[in-house]
Amino acid sequence: MSLTNATPLEVAQSARVGSRKLAVLSTEERNAALTAIHKALAEGKDEVLAANKSDLEAADKAAAGGHLSQSLVKRLDLGKKGKYEDMLQGILDVRDLEDPINKITSRTLLDDNLILSRKTCPIGVLLIIFEARPEVIANISALALKSGNAAILKGGKESSHSFAAIASIISHALSTTAVPSDCLQLVQTHDVIADLLKLDTLIDLCIPRGGNKLVRMVKDSTAIPVLGHADGICCTYLCADYPAEKAIKIIVDAKVSYPAGCNALEQLLIESSGLTTVLPAVAQALLESGVSLRCDAASLSALQKTLDPHSAALLQPSSPSDYDFEFLDLVLAIKTVESVDEAISHINTHSSHHTDAILTLDPEHANRFLAAVDSSSVYWNTSTRMADGQRYGFGTEVGISTNKIHSRGPVGLEGLTIYKWILEGDAQVSAEYGAGGKSWKHEKLAVEGEEWVARSEEEKDVLRRFRTGRGAGLTDV
Amino acid sequence: MSLTNATPLEVAQSARVGSRKLAVLSTEERNAALTAIHKALAEGKDEVLAANKSDLEAADKAAAGGHLSQSLVKRLDLGKKGKYEDMLQGILDVRDLEDPINKITSRTLLDDNLILSRKTCPIGVLLIIFEARPEVIANISALALKSGNAAILKGGKESSHSFAAIASIISHALSTTAVPSDCLQLVQTHDVIADLLKLDTLIDLCIPRGGNKLVRMVKDSTAIPVLGHADGICCTYLCADYPAEKAIKIIVDAKVSYPAGCNALEQLLIESSGLTTVLPAVAQALLESGVSLRCDAASLSALQKTLDPHSAALLQPSSPSDYDFEFLDLVLAIKTVESVDEAISHINTHSSHHTDAILTLDPEHANRFLAAVDSSSVYWNTSTRMADGQRYGFGTEVGISTNKIHSRGPVGLEGLTIYKWILEGDAQVSAEYGAGGKSWKHEKLAVEGEEWVARSEEEKDVLRRFRTGRGAGLTDV
Hints:
The structure is a homodimer.
Chain A: E1 2-4, H1 8-23, H2 27-43, H3 45-64, H4 70-76, H5 83-95, E2 104-111, E3 114-122, E4 125-130, H6 136-146, E5 150-154, H7 160-174, E6 184-187, H8 193-196, E7 205-209, H9 212-220, E8 234-238, H10 244-256, E9 265-271, H11 279-288, E10 292-295, H12 297-306, H13 309-312, E11 316-317, E12 331-337, H14 340-350, E13 355-359, H15 363-372, E14 377-380, E15 399-401, E16 409-411, E17 417-424, E18 443-444, E19 452-454, H16 457-467
Parallel strand pairs in A: 1-6, 4-5, 4-7, 5-6, 8-9, 8-13, 9-12, 10-11, 10-12, 13-14
Antiparallel strand pairs in A: 2-3, 2-18, 3-17, 15-16
Pfam families (chains A, B): Aldedh
Keywords (chains A, B): Amino-acid biosynthesis, NADP, Oxidoreductase, Proline biosynthesis
InterPro entries (chains A, B): Ald_DH/histidinol_DH, Ald_DH_C, Ald_DH_N, Aldehyde_DH_dom, G-glutamylP_reductase_CS, GPR_dom
């Protein structure tokens, strides 16, 4: 990693050259680089924490002057209980994931001795813009190297000392490995971003990790593809038939377990026939968890009649803008709808297409909802907070995408790869095929290392019986 | 399909609403719409050809005045031998492809009764900008409907009468089907494009089908993701060890069979040790096919010494800009390189990352080339003209992408789809898992309709013996 003051063009060009070399390194060479980074950061802990202390002192001053929130100051602190060790472990976790590149994902015999393969490969050069949290730099570096991508990193200024210390250690560690150090570059000045965003022939993908404003700014000022989400306005539609106890468990988790998360619940839609049956218990539980409820007229009226006077006094009327807003706080907007179709229509119009849920015992309503809601993740009877790469089993995540192309929902290592088509032949040419000429075979071939597949009902039966033990004797045939 | 003069915002909003309805139609309903369009266009042939005649007359006038090329006039002509019938057949071909949406592509047991599925779905609303060829409108409409996407279409002005006639027929046909007519809208005025390109919250993907200038203009003026290729600068590296006869066959096909194609060869790199062995025969064959050769100093000198005087007189010296140019004509730039590494480096710098080939008998050189060349398609011993969706076995293609995300190389129906994550549970919530709580199972499940896979060496052995007959008795176990 180089900590660079080079021009944006030099940064991008050297990252591009580095990316070509990185792309052809073996799994072992890329993993060895991650091992080296882990070791160096473990040994350099004191150095990084000292730098982090400088950032914290500056942040404390800024916070005292009202220029920075206390929650942001907390997020800067790398010295907190186990945070540094988690960062180190994260590097090894990424190292130990399956290599996402050089996997053959399809193979077709186009004609005799003419074989088309699709092979996964790195995207190339990533531009990753992130906000204050200093541990992100280690996480992103690990993900980029594991997937064979070069990365240009730009972090928030509040963490600049921590970033510089981590970058210097990573840079030194990489110099002992096969990975060119230009593959990871930390740019230090903010004013380079606008110029980097113009370099769409050198940078292949931009991942802004931060708030709505950052993502919008990036999208509006670049021809580089952008992966990310601007908002997390998640909705849950509670049907009248759903048991109150389960509804409380799910909705309280979705709203309260981490209100600042992009997968936190922001809007509760309630079926009108449930206004006085299931809603009051849910509202009571939310109020007891400290959640402010902003209710539409129908739900406000129903809750005022059913809740005790103390709770009812806490209710607030909603305004129309509450249904297009990401609170990121203990605030929930409630809206009454007549049907699953009205819920679907509201969500498709007002949610941010991140994660939306239905709570119902009726499979027909659930299936209609799951099919028609146009969001990255759609849930039946569970909490929107489940939307997370680690929970989905990806091992880690780059972020959550509300894009409609490439990668949608939690993005794991696979989202940092693309593929190339490889065609191997023996002097076949295009003009030989088609009208009056040779025919294409287009026969699907097994991919290397692919599992043996049972191709007929009979073969499936053989496997089934073998697994259930009734075919155990087969090994003696 | 509506032939619309509505405002860009109205067009995009109604396409968005239409796309929601289209996305939940069954395979049969979408296929029935394609059948209806096919039938209507077959019956309306005279009407379309009459409109096409108006376009042709205007084009002939423009060509006579020097404002339009004769090759463009030819491409406008829908009445030419079998062209209309090919267009009609294309609709049925697309209809009969496998449905690309609603396919479960992965399924994971996160915990008991908590199942995560990844299901393919349409992208949403496509904006497709294409140049003159009138039959493209039928092709694109078929691809969009088959994949469940709404499409806003803008064609070149030279085909406006043909487009209007086809759009009116498709519109009438759709009104008898389950597909909302707003799902296909042909916009007629050119000045709406700039406004449409601003609507990135309503339009999900833009596909410009046309020249470099169009693609560049689109990329530079929108936050909508763009799928396509700006240039087709394809290179072939000819090694000294490759037999001249096969080299001639491949290189003549790549250059001559369709010089205006984006997959046509534009640059031949020759290994220096082959300058006087394999190159002269290849150059002679190209000259005999009418190709102008623009040679670097080394190849010019070698060919001047080895070719007969008449042929040698046809050779031209190249200029540096010839190695960054798409000729789209019977012109080929030749460059001498010392090694496979120099060829790789030249191609990664000067090709348009579309399709590049190596011709060699040496597997080590070939593999190095295939791994290191960063192009959508990389070939060993075959013609760059093979880069085509039909040839790759996709049935059809939307176009060829040199993007580094989503879809690369020839784009089939799969490139018009994305996926959503569906999580079905029974009131599990995020706070139950993790430190001190429940553990994730993250167990891969078979996807519906997926083949049974032999998971262990033992199971593979069982299948193997069953197939070779030695386990045939197993059915009686």
